[in-house]
Every structure is written in structure tokens, then in C-alpha cells.
Amino acid sequence: MTGGPEPISAVARAAIERELSDLRTERDAVLVTLRGGGDDQTGDRADQADELERGTELDRLDRRIAELESRLREGAVAGPVRTDEVGVGSSVTVRFSDGTESTVQIGEVAEVHDPTMVTSDSPLGRALLGRRAGETVTYDTPGGRENAVVVSIGGE
């Protein structure tokens, strides 16, 4: 990543929005279980520990919600996905050393069932970031170093 605002693909935006919705629902459920914050000292230590745990969970949820909302704002500021060089959100067609070609999406988070998603912090993703069509990249695999040529770059 460049260190500045990074564009966000439609796929990543949808995934973040789904996660935000789930987190907000979870947060509402945790909030309902918390007491009103009064000075009621009638509960035992187990009740107090449970209350503390729910408060900690609420803090965790709030932090993650803020992080995701910030990423959505950053993506909006960054504008559309670039097509002149590989960046987060790019769709990249690469030709591997064995001659096969594959189109991959450079993303921030890999979807569990999406074999075309390559995260920007994976070996191939890192090698592709900032590259242009026609350039050759070298990256590490479990079987050793590999080369691939950037055939073309597209947006979402």
C-alpha cells in the first residue's frame, strides 16, 4: 500500500459493509445485556465479572466498527481504482512462468471462497503492487521463487 488513502473495490466495500452490519447487530445485543450503570451492589462477583466482560466486548466492537467506518471513508477519499498500475482493488491478469494466465483481484481481505482474491500483503500481492502492464515480478512460494508477467490491469 502507498501510505495514502487507498481505493476500495466494490467487493471489499460490500464485505466491509456486511461486517459492519453484523458488528452493529452484535453491539446492540451486548448493549441490551448491560445494566443501567447504577450503584446496585446486590449482584455477586460472578455477575460483576460478567458485566465487566460485556463492557470489554462492547469496547472491542466499538473499536472494530470505528476502524471499518474509517476504511470506508478513506476509500471514498481515494477515488476510483487505478488502471495504470496495480493497487488495492485492481483486477490483474498475470502470466505465470508455466505459460498459464490468471486474473486476480488485489484485495485487503481474502474472501474465504474466492480463489481469485490475492491480498495486498501476500507474496504475490506485494510483488504486484505498483507494477504496470508488461513488467515481470518475482515472489516467493512454498516451492521457491516464481516469476509472473503483468499482462493487463483493470479496475473492479
Automatic annotation (TrEMBL):
InterPro entries: GreA/GreB_C_sf (IPR036953), Tscrpt_elong_fac_GreA/B_C (IPR001437), Tscrpt_elong_fac_GreA/B_fam (IPR023459). Residues 83-153 form the Transcription elongation factor GreA/GreB C-terminal domain. The keyword Secreted does not apply. Residues 42-55 have a biased composition (Basic and acidic residues). Keywords: Elongation factor, Protein biosynthesis. Transmembrane segments: none annotated. GO terms for molecular function: translation elongation factor activity. Residues 34-55 are annotated as: Disordered. The keyword Transport does not apply. Coiled coil: none annotated. Gene3D superfamilies: Transcription elongation factor, GreA/GreB, C-terminal domain (3.10.50.30). PANTHER family: TRANSCRIPTION ELONGATION FACTOR GREA. This is GreA/GreB family elongation factor. It comes from Streptomyces exfoliatus. The lineage of its organism: Bacteria, Bacillati, Actinomycetota, Actinomycetes, Kitasatosporales.
